Amino acid sequence: MTNKNLSLENLDEEFYQVTPEILESFPRFRLPLNLYIFKENVAQLEPYYRAEQRLTKEKREELFELSEEGLIFVARADHHIYAKHISKQLDLVLVDKNLKPSEIIEIFQIALTRRIHEFYEQPVRPTFEKLVSDISVLIEYLWEDQYRLKGLIKNLLTTYSLPNMAYNAGIIGIALFYDVQGKNLTKKHLTQIALGLFTYDLGLARLPKILLEKKQNLTPEEQNKINNHPLNGAKILRKLDITEAVTLQCHLEHHEYMDGSGYPRKLSGADISLSGAITALAHTFSEILTQNDPTPPTREILNKLSGMKNKYNPNLISSLSKIFIHDLMK
């Protein structure tokens, strides 16, 4: 490690402070990244700790005292290490005021896609509770400032996987719910629909990979399994004591279309709930975004969806266009 001569003005561009709360979350005596100390008399950062070296009890106590004084820093070049760590204790993003919005977005992406993957692989209470906890952190982050949604919307994932699809649908769906509900929005209902959005394809994830990746025509039995995956996802949630209609409808109705041509119940028009209609539209947007190479421009996706008003709620399509075009692209 080399000394860093910095002015106070550009310090935040290369480094950020580490609070005692963040330090407490690391392994007690072997931290995974380098730390720097700010020498006030020369306005200079100097190496303080090298990653993975063992801290003595005395050195650890000194480190916390220096951190309390705001003198311990991490290099932004090590953000990838920091982000992976914070993503495992996501509530830390609410207390770390030194993170840039782009860094927080990356942490949410890492955390939520990992939690979704874990839940899809093992839909049991421990993985579910971890996912619920991380979704609650996201909702709290947005509730503090809803304009933070803009950054999340601008940075959707473009690589296909079921967790990536669910992450995108979650962010898009939350933005739609904000726009539609307006002043009637409550944190309770936002949390409920977010839980449904981030897990909506659980039923599909539980099907055998060989079926999902099959290139040949499906047999009637195989097609029936595909068509019933929304019901099976909702069934698993009910076993985990999820009974809120707003959440379950995301699972049950994300393949229902306005013209009645969807599945599994062939609902149409007003029979499709708001949360179901939001999830259906968010799912399709994410599908087009992640399953095309090269990734299509946002306007191209919106134009395609605008031509499908027989399948998706026209008011929601207009809201989606407003969110992407008028609010973000101006």
Question: How would you explain this protein's 3D organization?
Answer:
It is a single chain. The model is unreliable at 1-9 (pLDDT under 50). 34% of the residues are buried. The chain has helices at residues 11-14, 20-25, 57-68, 79-87, 101-121, 125-144, 149-154, 162-181, 187-199, 202-205, 209-212, 220-227, 229-239, 245-252, 274-290, 298-306, 314-328; strands at 4-5, 15-17, 35-39, 44-49, 72-75. By secondary structure, it is an alpha+beta fold.
- Rg computed from alpha carbons, rounded to a whole number of angstroms: 23 Å
Order of helices and strands: EHEHEEHEHHHHHHHHHHHHHH
What is the distance, rounded to the nearest whole angstrom, between the alpha carbons of the first and last residues? Answer: 44 Å
Note the beta-strand portion: 5-15%
CATH superfamily of the largest domain: Hypothetical protein af1432
Gross morphology? elongated
Total of domains? 2
Q: In terms of topology, how is this protein built?
A:
Elements: E1 4-5, H1 11-14, E2 15-17, H2 20-25, E3 35-39, E4 44-49, H3 57-68, E5 72-75, H4 79-87, H5 101-121, H6 125-144, H7 149-154, H8 162-181, H9 187-199, H10 202-205, H11 209-212, H12 220-227, H13 229-239, H14 245-252, H15 274-290, H16 298-306, H17 314-328
Antiparallel strand pairs: 1-4, 2-5, 3-4, 3-5
Helix pairs in contact: 4-5, 5-6, 5-8, 6-9, 8-9, 8-15, 8-17, 9-14, 13-14, 14-15, 15-16, 16-17
